[in-house]
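Quick one: structure for this chain?
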Amino acid sequence: MPTPQTPPSRAETAAKIASNPSAYKVCEGCDSIVGAGAALCPNCHSFRFDAAAEQVIRQARILGAREQTSVTAEDLG
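Got it. Here's what it folds into:
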């Protein structure tokens, strides 16, 4: 019987983002990290982003080092 895969930890996800910051950007409305192709933030619907690699890496490290505090779509499932 297949076992469900464990989701990656926040630190693992942060490391993946930090290793390829050009694929992401930081929402200036709520500080979430979204894919580079996003037009609107899925969390706060802002349309302002910071795509600077340094900012993406900095925010990934911040978010990866703490517990999740925001509600996601999966939480509302």
